[in-house]
Design goal:
Elements: H1 6-29, E1 60-64, E2 68-71, E3 77-87, E4 93-104, E5 110-121, E6 126-136, E7 142-151
Length: 153
């Protein structure tokens, strides 16, 4: 038989007990507080801001005609829309995107779109665009809108 002394067992338990106590203390230190801290002004992230350069800037006005309904030979419908876009600003614009939208009068949902890119649009210049076919349902009523965006010169 082996004789194992009680002091040998207690020496084995001592490191285990020390590790357990350290783990319990460390777990208490790593917890989050119940009340969140208010952010300081230095830590608050500002909203995304787009800065325009100083000096002359392009600006656009746009108008659109009422959509004209046309019938295809298969009895489906499409609409034709004409829009006028003018650069009313005092600088030329680059990469002008003109988006025509055919919008359902009842639901206010966009039914169809057509996008035109004008690489350069001079100050004071007016351009007329006609887009077709914008598909739609024959039994619905629509109106058209234009959205104009451009790169900063």
């Amino acid at each position: 038989m082996q004789d194992v002394s009680l002091s040998g067992k207690s020496l084995m338990l001592l490191p285990l007990l020390a590790c357990l106590v350290c783990a319990a203390v460390a777990a208490g230190c790593m917890g989050t507080s119940a009340v969140p801290e208010a952010p300081t002004p230095e830590a608050t992230v500002s909203a995304h801001t787009t800065y325009s350069p100083a000096g002359p800037q392009p600006s656009f006005s746009a108008s659109v005609t009422a959509p004209e309904k046309h019938f295809r030979t298969d009895a489906s419908c499409y609409w034709v829309v004409t829009g006028t876009v003018t650069n009313t600003g005092n600088a030329a614009a680059r990469n002008v995107v003109i988006r025509f939208m055919l919008i359902d009068d009842e639901s206010s949902m966009i039914r169809a779109t057509e996008t035109i890119l004008a690489p350069r649009f001079q100050a004071g210049e007016t351009k007329i665009f006609t887009v077709d076919p914008l598909p739609g349902d024959c039994g619905r009523e629509y109106h058209a809108e234009i959205a104009v965006t451009h790169d900063i010169p």
